[in-house]
Queue: 2 jobs
Job 1
Amino acid sequence: MMRYETFIEKYRWWLIVVPIVITFLAAIPLLKTKINPDLERYFPEDNPAVQSKHKIDSLFGNSDPIILIFETKDVLNAKTLTRMRKLSRAFNRATEFERVISLFDTKQIRGEEGMMIVDPVIGKTPATEADREELRQEIRGNELAYKLVVSEDFTKTLIILKQANGVTDEEAIRKIDEVLLEYGGDETVLKGGSPYLRKHLNDDTTRDMLTLLPIGLIIMILFLAISFREWKGVFLPFLVVILSIAISLGFFPLMGWELSVITVLAPIMMIAIANNYGVHFIARYQELNAQNPDWTMREITREVLSKLKSPVIVTGLTTIAGILGLVVHILLPARQLGVAAALGIAFALLFSITFLPALMMVMKKGKRIKSLENETGFLHKSLSWLATRSSRRPYHVLLVFGSFLILAAGGIAFLHVDSNAENFLPPGHPFRQATNLINNEFGGTMYMTVLFEGDIKDPTLLKRMGQYETTLEKDPRIGSVTSIASVIRIMSRALNDPGDSAYNRIPDSREAVAQYLELYSMNGDPEDFEDLVNFDYTRALMTVQFRADSKNALDEVIGEVEEITAKDPNRTIIGGFCVIDKELSEAIISGQYNSLILAIAIIALLLVIIFRSATAGFLGVLPLIYTIIALFGTMGWLGIKLDMATAMLSSIAIGIGVDYTIHLFWRLKQEIATGKPYQEAIHTTLTTTGRGITINALTVMIGFTVLFISSFLIIKYFAFLIIFSVLICLLCALILMPSLSILMKPKFINPKS
Amino acid sequence: MNIKQLIVIAGILLPFITLGQDPKEITKKAYDITDIDAMEIVSTIKIYDAKGNERTRQTATATKRFGETNKVITQFTAPADVKGTGILIYDYDNRDDDMWIYLPALRKTRRIVSSEKGKSYMGSEFSNADMSTPNLEDFKYKVLGSEKYNGIDCWQIEAVPVSEEVADDNGYSKRISLIDKKTDFMYKTIFYNFDGDKFKELTVGPYEPFGNGKYIIRKMEAVNLENGRRSEMTIDKIQKGSSLTESSFSPSALEK
């Protein structure tokens, strides 16, 4: 049988051309694909909260509105009112929105000398100061408008827009920009509501990430060039990274999958993981070149390949196993990411042991690196010092690492789960200003809906709904509660005189309720109640608008609404985006724990099989577990919340954490096999393979520092956590593992002992 | 005279023939033939939502003209929960209507005010304007041409509101009606929204002779093309004239 090295040598040209062709073919469909920013569509359909929201949305339309805030000295001034009237008209005419709520759409239901009057809050624009003050007084008394569409001090007014079915965030936002541009004005405009939050998170963060990453790549290239002082050292590892990014991303259109925000993680994972193999090849080649000046490039490559192919295959397999942990993820795009990233790594691995050595064989041999020859480089000296310290004082190392772990683990107690994606945006961001305004001066940005089914005209049901409203409105976090019950109560004020027993209350008979509504339908708009009650009065929706600045507050309000309405025989479901958000982020995080445990177990098992040793399994996953505990603990200490995005980072830690250790053990085993004592073997390993590991880790760390420029907190956290994970993995491999092997002298490293 | 010359002459004359028809006059005639001084009717309104759910209202109405004012009194007979609810309308020629309503559950008569003609009639797809004679002066009229409707030769007449305010009050940017060239029956009206798209179709007929050159409309249907809602009004019983005196058309009489 042909030796593997000979096979590579013989077919080198094929092995160079075929991968390049494959990559090009994989990349072609990418040119046509677009990123789909709508994550909501991927929410698991079997989740009860998702089903509830779908049901309520299908009955009463979108319950997740866009909120525009207009701010000026006095919103009742003629100019602002004229603009608001034009805007309201334009939005009402736009087919993108099924419902517009503004000063000009909100109704005023009042009684005047025995008359019931239903009119828009503002009819004619007040011409005089006196008219304006009269209008102001009127609005103050209108509980459908005051503090809901106009702020208490009349400096702000809202336009609330509900997207029509099938209209995407993008389409709605484009229309809003168009209308605002057409009817311009001096008022400060802020835009809030989940559709804008999704837009900012998806578009802006993705854009930031995708513009900053290439800069990071350039910095990584520069760093590799400085470290290796040879263009091969830059070119080869990066070629593998680029090829694997193209293949993993190209896999999406090939499978008919859409690119989403989560897909952005694929190139990040490739950058962090896939250059690892190439870096080790270059490091080993330079080492052999320095030691054997008379070898040819082909001889060197054959030797590198025979020494590195096994550890590279093992690190590749463990990484793939770790990343495949994502296939149990709750979100479809995350599952797809797991498969695509695993595939990318598989190709990176394949290219590293075929394409890369084939290329090396046709390249000219580079100059020998002087510092490697006479062992004078800074990196060499530092690694050499580390090797000596860790092998002479292993207990000190254990003490330091142990104390750090205990310290860091303490932080896990402070680790909070957060689902409020607003916090990802920087504090001064216009969206957060909008949210603060809505929370402080209006009812709040969160919406929850409670569905009641049965005979909605039944006064006993309406009275119960009224009671829930009164109880809920006592909570200062709840800004408003609206339902058909409150509207009927308001009607009773128009139809009855104060002091009358029927004034300001839901009437006692079903007939009276029906007649109130009939009366309204004759002078109001039949669409006025469309989001409160359905056509045949068999379903009614109660909408709770509230503010929650923390996960705790959110949980409490959701719990309160649940509890207060729980015993109602007519209450069927509770919905709202915030409920989905809460449940999903909880599910995603617990799912992430599961995939972590699964990945660690699989990696341990793989190592046990490969090294035929249980100790190898334990030692191999130790840095991984160490890194994850340190990561979560540090997040706790620093107050970084655990959310969908940060939780997924642990998968990257898994991808790289085990690689460094495997390379280290493999070399150590090889060195000990040549008869070297432990201390010397560790010294050689650290100054040779350790050099590759260090260059690899530093490249990734330096590359990701670029993301700190981003204005988005989420990207900064991302960068910090990746750098932190890589650093801990590196320290574990270079310091903790050598000390542990000195202490334990495990059999799998030294079979003869 | 050869054919070519004929065509040229026809081409020159045709616009004048069409222009010769006063679109406002045609529209006025179409309204006038259904404007009846006094009658009593029983009618049913059925309102359907897009899913086909149905709401039914049954009413008994008497209408009689007293001088310049057309007075209409309507009483709900079904469904049970609104039975007995009464509505009284004074339809003035030159100013906004007056309207009173009696709610039996409250045993009270209330006056309601509404100036918006585009508002819904009893929560149906018919607007208040569809139910009464619109003010002719609020619109500018134009003959667009001729069209066959069920084989009948009709004028196509466009009516555009004279101002933004009128447009907003009525809730549409223009309407196009098909009016029978011979009989002046208005069979169909299409309403356009502010984007210039069709949003409502009103179909009227059959017409039945009522004496004195007047006609009664037996059935009307309005379809909202935007939200799929549809309303249908049929006249079940008609009686010429009304024995009711003017005092029966007063707010206090509603409560009986």
Note: Chain A has 26 helices and ten strands.
Job 2
Amino acid sequence: MLTIIRKEVLLLLKEKGTFFWLFLLPILFIVMFASVFGNIGGQDITIQYLDQDDTQASHQFLDAIKELKGFTLESDNDLTLDEQVQQIKDGKQSSLLVIPSGFEKELQASAAPANIELYRDATADDAVAPVQAVLQNIANGYREGKISGTLQGLGKTDVEIQQILTPPIAVKEVKENASKADMVSQVVPGYTVMFVFFIIISMVRSFIKEKESGMLARLRSTPLKPLSYLMGTWVSFILVALIQCGVLLAFGHFVYDLQLGDVLAVSLIVLCLSICGTGIGLALSMLVKSENQGVAFTQILTMGGAVVGGLWFPYDFLPRSAQVVGLFTPQYWAQHGFQDVMIRGAHLTDVWPTLLVLIGFGVLGLLVALARYRKFMLTASN
Amino acid sequence: MAVVEVQGLTKTYDKKQALHNVSFSVAGGSCFGLLGPNGAGKSTTMKILTGILDGDGGTAKILGLDVQHDRDNLRRQVGYVPQEITLYDKLSAVDNLRFFGELYGVKGAELRERIAAVLEQVGLTDRAKDAVKTFSGGMKRRINIAAALLHQPKLLILDEPTVGIDPQSRNHIFNMIRDLKQQGVTIIYSTHYMEEVETLCDHLAIIDNGHVIAQGALQELLDQYGQTSIFVEAKGWAELPALAEVKSSRAVDDGYMLETDHLLETMQSLTQTALRQGVHVRKLETVRPSLETVFLTLTGTSLRD
């Protein structure tokens, strides 16, 4: 068995594509997605506006927006209202805040509400929602100011006014995570898990190539036990998956300051994940009839599992039906386990369901492979 | 004493019967040829002998051990060179040999010595550390054979080991087989090249469509089934003159092949007829019996077809 392991590792080392698929590509994905999504929280939302009133009141209103964190005001005085509305229609702009002439007068008259207008692209709900929310918030501020003025007129003290204006329900945010939860703690374990399953392609390729080249038949003429061949090949791919996970998590830790948490727990998840991915690879190698078939099945397993397992975006963002499907994938359990340890400070005793599920998938793969192995060897001999 | 004893071997793939009651025996220290066209059943027989395949019926014994029941013991005493080149292209010759040597249980210093010895045998010592993918087809075939010699087998089974190689490598392989035979190694050599059997083997079995149609010592088969012939190529004979001594004739290339039991008389008749008719004879030669004629006599078809 050691001979098979050594041969397989030697072959993988000689294969230039191995480094690209197992290490460079996942690192590239991690860098790309961590850079793109990691900056989302830090980017300001730009509000395009047109101040037709141009009075002290309209300036105060705009100043109120400027004071808010995460929002930037921008105006293009060269374009008319019609031209800017046309830009929204053309999809070049998502919204336009217009403070119409007479805003200040309407505000001072206080008979009817002073109107501001928000032109928006009907298809850009996600982009416009924060703008709508902030405008509503400022409008509420004006309303509170008006109520406060009325109450003062009625002779209420500041304390009494404060009590009246205090909302009956206050939402208190309590962060329960041991470490910060950001895109790095989503992307690094996510792509580590995803790319472990890509090793299935290398496994299928190795087995099919050995079968079609006559090597497997040749090996049958030697004293090598068939089971030693199967197990030797499996173990060598487990070793490769372990190294792959180690490299990717270390990259996340040293380059992006990913907090690994309990290293023993993470290590055991990595071991079980490696057994799981390669176990499934073993089963698939015995089941498929050609390399192309193997690659197709691997893509389905890898990409499908990545989506519903919450590897690409947080599992909680997924629709309920996708979340249910995700529960049946090893990717979900691996990612869940990693994040439990890295974000929520879980230890070995907390992640045993993850370890059990991953080992279960691996053992199931081995059993399927063993059941199919005789037939696989027979087709290799003819 | 027979090293290999095959009795009534049968094998069926799906509905196609590949071997029909195949029987033959191979004497120790001999080079035994298994001759037949592609698809005759040679590789199937080899694979059963090496334990890669199970036969459906009959028995096969090597060194007195049953190939089906004593596989583990036998595999350490048999070397198998398959028709395909079964090497890892990206690994060096030494890495490939180390891999196969370890599979046969050869290890450490002994393995290093054996690798050096087999590389010397196949004449590739200077290319030991080069990746196999840089080798010519002939060199790959030689390493393919070297991989089966590391454990010093008592029986070496070679399945079409010279397909698609250059003359230099072919000669190297022939010399190696002769050396092994001299060292007392028993050899089974499967091929569809009759010249190779004539050059290397002292005994053979001819196999066609899964049947052994003839077997024995090479000279016995040639004597029994071969036919002495005369080849004549002449300008001016649109049709060959009828000669009483000729049993049969057929056109071959630009001349005729005449089968006869009376060489001298036939040549005399041909010469006299040509002189009388003023025909210019370009070639007139005797053709010794060959396995080609043996195969033709036995099957009615040429081995090359």
Note: Chain A has a mean pLDDT of 85.
